[in-house]
């Protein structure tokens, strides 16, 4: 466990993230252009999706896929209720902001998904390719739960304007489309496609991941510096405790399904992550009264660094102990 | 050169709201609009910057449209129905154009 933690702490991925975080906190002018950051995210999701599809083409689909998706959806639906209750009981966040934050913590972070798969690859721990589909399925249910919670307190735009349109935008947000699209292409082209794209989508992955995490470190550092005033002790504690609650629930569900250690680590990490792309945009549309700086500071400034540095090695170690 | 008075509407808004606003402008019969990215800013929630962001949530855009004064109230009503509770602001200013039939 300590070896794994040290190996993670001294990995290029984490060190580049720490470099970005430190540079931002030191107010360095180091930056990654917005277009490059988006391209990197696109590339990483495309790589993961494609590799997942190739793996499914190779090994085929199993009943575990359905069970894993069902577990993911259940987690995503229920975790916002826990997060909301925890925030209301321990912090001074008002119901609308608490519901918005809860939605972030019920959904998943594609960025953290990229990080855990990168870490598993580095450790040569295999995970099932269909976990890509599980990640996609876990993105949306939390939004529905959060809107149901918030409905009591606000008349949201989503009710008066286009709730259907908003859900369509969430379901078809760019990160989901590229992840599932690349997954389908990987499944269709199989080994032939993997051989063709290996230098681009597989060999170059660790380098691009480092550059991406450098940018995430910069963004997280800026978020922390700018959003510091929202980080009261109870709210900051929530951003660390809630991932551990999500991880515990996911671990409890992964065991009866019989997921492999790698897939268990992925499911735990997904449940422990907080959304940074899809949910924030959905919350701006559905709950404009909520302050976006609170959820984003917690999600990217506290939970993501916690997961990247401490959480992921812990989840991998736990998965190795409990999974078949 | 002869010029003609028109109204210029500037809407600074959150990126996720863009599609909704442009749909309202289309419905209100606005003949054209342009979108300009905003690099960084400061507001009630503090500083923000688009630098390095992969999420649209922390990005703002400015939507510019020029309309005839007779249509201004209808356009503003349509826009306000969508943006009134959101981050951003709307300004209206007097401008002169050389091709009035375009607006």
UniProtKB/TrEMBL annotation, chain A:
<feature type="transmembrane region" description="Helical">
    <location>
        <begin position="265"/>
        <end position="287"/>
    </location>
</feature>
<feature type="transmembrane region" description="Helical">
    <location>
        <begin position="294"/>
        <end position="318"/>
    </location>
</feature>
<keyword id="KW-1133">Transmembrane helix</keyword>
<dbReference type="InterPro" id="IPR010293">
    <property type="entry name" value="Sbt_1"/>
</dbReference>
<feature type="transmembrane region" description="Helical">
    <location>
        <begin position="200"/>
        <end position="221"/>
    </location>
</feature>
<feature type="transmembrane region" description="Helical">
    <location>
        <begin position="233"/>
        <end position="259"/>
    </location>
</feature>
<feature type="transmembrane region" description="Helical">
    <location>
        <begin position="99"/>
        <end position="124"/>
    </location>
</feature>
<feature type="transmembrane region" description="Helical">
    <location>
        <begin position="35"/>
        <end position="53"/>
    </location>
</feature>
<keyword id="KW-0472">Membrane</keyword>
<keyword id="KW-0812">Transmembrane</keyword>
<feature type="transmembrane region" description="Helical">
    <location>
        <begin position="65"/>
        <end position="87"/>
    </location>
</feature>
<protein>
    <submittedName>
        <fullName>Sodium-dependent bicarbonate transport family permease</fullName>
    </submittedName>
</protein>
<feature type="transmembrane region" description="Helical">
    <location>
        <begin position="130"/>
        <end position="150"/>
    </location>
</feature>
<dbReference type="Pfam" id="PF05982">
    <property type="entry name" value="Sbt_1"/>
</dbReference>
<feature type="transmembrane region" description="Helical">
    <location>
        <begin position="6"/>
        <end position="26"/>
    </location>
</feature>
<feature type="transmembrane region" description="Helical">
    <location>
        <begin position="170"/>
        <end position="188"/>
    </location>
</feature>
UniProtKB/TrEMBL annotation, chain B:
<dbReference type="InterPro" id="IPR002187">
    <property type="entry name" value="N-reg_PII"/>
</dbReference>
<dbReference type="GO" id="GO:0006808">
    <property type="term" value="P:regulation of nitrogen utilization"/>
</dbReference>
<dbReference type="InterPro" id="IPR015867">
    <property type="entry name" value="N-reg_PII/ATP_PRibTrfase_C"/>
</dbReference>
<dbReference type="InterPro" id="IPR011322">
    <property type="entry name" value="N-reg_PII-like_a/b"/>
</dbReference>
<comment type="function">
    <text>In nitrogen-limiting conditions, when the ratio of Gln to 2-ketoglutarate decreases, P-II is uridylylated to P-II-UMP. P-II-UMP allows the deadenylation of glutamine synthetase (GS), thus activating the enzyme. Conversely, in nitrogen excess P-II is deuridylated and promotes the adenylation of GS. P-II indirectly controls the transcription of the GS gene (glnA). P-II prevents NR-II-catalyzed conversion of NR-I to NR-I-phosphate, the transcriptional activator of glnA. When P-II is uridylylated to P-II-UMP, these events are reversed.</text>
</comment>
<protein>
    <recommendedName>
        <fullName>Nitrogen regulatory protein P-II</fullName>
    </recommendedName>
</protein>
<dbReference type="Pfam" id="PF00543">
    <property type="entry name" value="P-II"/>
</dbReference>
<dbReference type="GO" id="GO:0030234">
    <property type="term" value="F:enzyme regulator activity"/>
</dbReference>
């Amino acid at each position: 466990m300590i070896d794994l933690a040290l190996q993670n702490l001294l990995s290029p991925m984490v060190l580049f993230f720490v470099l970005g975080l430190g540079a931002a906190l030191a107010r360095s002018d180091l930056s990654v252009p917005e277009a490059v950051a988006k391209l990197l995210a696109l590339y990483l999701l495309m790589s993961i999706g494609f590799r997942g599809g190739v793996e499914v083409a190779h090994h085929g689909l199993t009943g575990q896929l359905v069970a894993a998706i069902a577990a993911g959806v259940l987690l995503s639906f229920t975790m916002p209720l826990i997060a909301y209750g925890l925030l209301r009981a321990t912090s001074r966040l008002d119901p609308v902001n608490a519901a918005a934050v809860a939605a972030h913590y019920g959904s998943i972070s594609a960025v953290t998904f990229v990080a855990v798969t990168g870490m598993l690859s580095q450790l040569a721990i295999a995970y099932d390719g269909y976990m890509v589909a599980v990640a996609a399925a876990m993105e949306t249910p939390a939004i529905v739960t959060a809107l149901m919670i918030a409905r009591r307190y606000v008349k949201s735009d989503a009710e008066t304007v286009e709730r259907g349109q908003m859900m369509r935008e969430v379901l078809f947000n760019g990160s989901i489309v590229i992840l599932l699209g690349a997954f389908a292409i990987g499944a269709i082209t199989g080994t032939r496609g993997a051989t063709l794209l290996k230098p681009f989508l597989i060999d170059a992955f660790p380098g691009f991941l480092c550059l991406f995490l450098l940018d995430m470190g910069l963004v997280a550092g800026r978020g922390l510096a700018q959003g510091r005033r929202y980080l009261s002790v109870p709210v900051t504690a929530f951003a660390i405790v809630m991932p551990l609650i999500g991880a515990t629930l996911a671990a409890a569900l992964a065991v009866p399904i019989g997921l492999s250690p790698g897939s268990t680590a992925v499911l735990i990490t997904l449940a422990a992550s907080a959304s940074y792309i899809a949910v924030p945009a959905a919350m701006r549309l559905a709950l404009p009264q909520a302050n976006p700086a609170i959820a984003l500071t917690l999600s990217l400034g506290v939970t993501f660094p916690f997961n990247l540095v401490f959480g992921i090695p812990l989840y991998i170690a736990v998965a190795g102990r409990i999974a078949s | 050169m002869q010029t003609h008075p028109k109204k210029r509407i500037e809407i600074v808004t959150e990126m996720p709201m863009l599609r909704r606003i442009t749909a309202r402008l289309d419905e209100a019969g606005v003949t054209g609009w342009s979108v300009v990215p905003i690099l960084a800013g400061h507001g009630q929630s503090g500083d923000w910057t688009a630098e390095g962001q992969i999420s649209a949530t922390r990005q703002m855009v400015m939507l510019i449209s020029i309309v005839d004064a007779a249509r201004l109230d209808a356009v503003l009503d349509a826009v306000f129905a969508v943006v009134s509770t959101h981050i951003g602001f709307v300004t209206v200013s007097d401008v002169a154009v050389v091709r009035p039939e375009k607006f």
